[in-house]
Specification:
The protein is an alpha/beta fold and 472 residues long. The protein is 46% helix and 21% strand. The chain folds into three domains: 12-88, Beta-Lactamase; 173-334, Heat Shock Protein 90 (2-Layer Sandwich); 342-469, Response regulator (Rossmann fold). It has helices at 12-22, 41-46, 90-134, 140-167, 179-196, 216-235, 268-271, 291-301, 326-333, 356-368, 379-388, 405-415, 417-420, 433-442, 453-469, and strands spanning 27-30, 36-39, 60-62, 68-75, 82-88, 175-177, 199-205, 212-214, 242-251, 254-261, 305-311, 315-323, 348-352, 372-376, 393-397, 423-427, 445-448. The strands form four sheets. Strands 2-1-5-4-3 form a five-stranded antiparallel β-sheet. Strands 7-9-10-12-11 form a five-stranded mixed β-sheet. It has a five-stranded parallel β-sheet with strand order 14-13-15-16-17. Helix 5 packs parallel to helix 6 (216-235). The protein starts with 11 loop residues before the first helix and ends with a helix. The structure holds adenosine-5'-triphosphate and magnesium ion (MG). Magnesium ion is lined by residues 225, 228-229, 291.
């Protein structure tokens, strides 16, 4: 009988066995010892090697043709016969693997950011004093050595910052940023791998790009994924020098960022699938197939688009196209001022940091510009001084044991609100969401550790100018 009560012209046994045979789901019948006594073709195709389910070590199986199945069983009768069927759980397993990987990365991220914070202080010292030394009259050999220290300390500082911004849990942001800076960050992050793998990175960056708008951390993640994919594609081709070209340009009113490699290229039949989640041609230990789908999603969130071109056998190009937002244009129109430090002369500045070499460095720098410096080695000592004295600028470390810079700032509010506007924070902690929120909500000025002398001087001049404008 069918559902509406009419009788079938075919033999029901024949119908059921045809259904069983044609069912795309792998199904089998087992006896009371788990031995397979009947299986449809989907089952024998998928699990060619299995004869007895009870002999399996577990019910999650990776099959020869790729993919993971879970075998479920339901009792068929009271003599122990069972129906067994396989459920394709490949995507769940990949997702689980990705989750474990992400959790591991988050743990490593926390570890690395702790180490990176600790490195910021010594780096600020090395960089600062190397810059001061570089201004002295030096013989050529010493100058060369100082220049090497300078370049390498700056490089170490950038690597630390890159790690910190990668490790930070990025809340999606919408800020104006320079795409070329992101490119340089990513190149620096991969520098070591490229040199080990003999890959040359060529940059062709347009000098007159307007600022991009969005979350620089996410765009960095996109570029990093594209570069790692390019490295993998190059590794697949033996015996030729690998080249990755990264290009930025304005085209048809949009910002274009492209990554071109001379790697394996993509087969025409795969082109339509590469942006699909879980599509990968890499082995399970090296690829989840989520990279490009996440990249495409991020770029779409930024109002842009991610395209791919490829010729199988000769390489690929991936291009991120992003719109320029009006607000970003306005932001760029504002001129940037580089101060001479002239306005520091005669100004009284309180420098607060628990690291002696940082207060010494900042004092050494500012004294050369004719400023009058007082130093406090902790938040508490600073508070005492702020109660009595008045300062034109307060240069304050954000992270200090006891009374932190942020809490000191709050206490100053009741003491002398005008003083609050004279704060300049020095911090290695701007990737911490809470710190960032504090800086943006309060509109407080800050510079990052390690800093260049010119950045410090410019920032102090900025605080002085702002206070003059407000007449405080
Ligand atoms: N530059 C490239 N050259 C050749 N093939 C590429 C390139 N970029 C991506 N592909 C192809 O697209 C597939 C999907 O890429 P995707 O970044 O999404 O995942 P994956 O790299 O395989 O894994 P994961 O990113 O998780 O490590 C890759 O497996 C590869 O076949
Ligand atoms: Mg990838």
């Amino acid at each position: 009988m069918t559902k509406d009560g009419t009788s079938l012209a075919v033999d029901p046994i024949q119908l059921i066995s045809s259904l069983f045979a044609l069912l795309p789901l792998p199904v089998a019948i087992t006896d009371n010892h788990g031995k397979i006594i009947l299986a449809n073709s989907s089952f024998t195709d998928t699990f060619a090697e299995i004869g007895n389910l009870d002999a399996l070590p577990h019910h999650e199986l990776e099959v020869a043709g790729g993919g993971t199945y879970e075998i479920e069983t339901v009792p068929l009768n009271d003599q122990g016969l069972k129906i067994a069927y396989g459920v394709n759980i490949t995507n769940e397993v990949l997702l689980r693997r990705q989750m474990v990987h992400m959790e591991k990365m988050a743990a490593i991220g926390r570890l690395v950011s702790g180490v990176a914070h600790e490195l910021n202080n010594p780096l600020a010292g090395i960089l600062g004093y190397a810059q001061l030394a570089a201004r002295a009259d030096l013989d050529p050999a010493t100058r060369r050595m100082i220049d090497v220290i300078l370049v390498q300390a700056e490089r170490a500082g950038k690597i630390v910052q890159n790690f910190l911004s990668l490790a930070a849990k990025n809340e999606p942001k919408r800020v104006a940023f320079r795409l070329n800076d992101i490119v340089r960050n990513v190149v620096q992050l991969r520098e070591y791998e490229e040199s080990v793998d003999n890959i040359v990175i060529r940059l062709d960056l347009s000098d007159d790009l307007p600022p991009a708008t969005g979350d620089p951390g996410q765009i960095e993640q996109v570029l990093l994924n594209l570069v790692v994919n390019a490295e993998d594609a190059i590794a697949d081709v033996q015996g030729q020098p690998g080249v990755i070209q990264i290009r930025s340009a304005m085209e048809d009113g949009n910002i274009h960022l492209s990554v071109t490699d001379n790697g394996s290229g993509i087969r025409a039949r795969d082109m339509a699938k590469i942006f699909d989640p879980f599509f990968t041609t890499k082995d399970k230990n090296s690829g989840t197939g989520l990279g490009l789908s996440i990249c495409a999603e991020i770029v779409k969130d930024h109002g842009g688009e991610l395209y791919a071109w490829s010729t199988y056998g000769s390489g690929s190009t991936f291009t991120v196209e992003m719109p320029v937002r009006a607000s970003a244009m306005e932001e760029e129109a504002r001129p940037e001022t580089v101060g001479s430090g002239e306005s520091l002369r005669g100004k009284s500045i309180l420098v607060i940091d628990d690291e002696v070499h940082i207060t010494e460095l900042i004092s050494d720098v500012l004294v050369r510009y004719g400023a009058e410096i007082e130093v406090a080695g902790s938040g508490v000592k600073a508070l005492e001084r702020l109660k009595d004295g008045s300062y034109d600028v307060v240069v304050c470390d954000q992270r200090m044991p006891g009374l932190s810079g942020q809490r000191l700032y709050r206490l100053v509010e009741s003491l002398n609100p005008k003083l609050q506007h004279r704060f300049l924070f020095v911090t290695g902690d701007v990737v911490n969401a809470q710190t960032r929120r504090f800086f943006t909500q309060e509109g407080v000025q800050y510079i990052r550790k390690p800093f260049r002398i010119q950045d410090l001087v410019d920032a102090i001049e900025g605080v002085l100018t702002e206070n003059q404008l407000q007449g405080s």
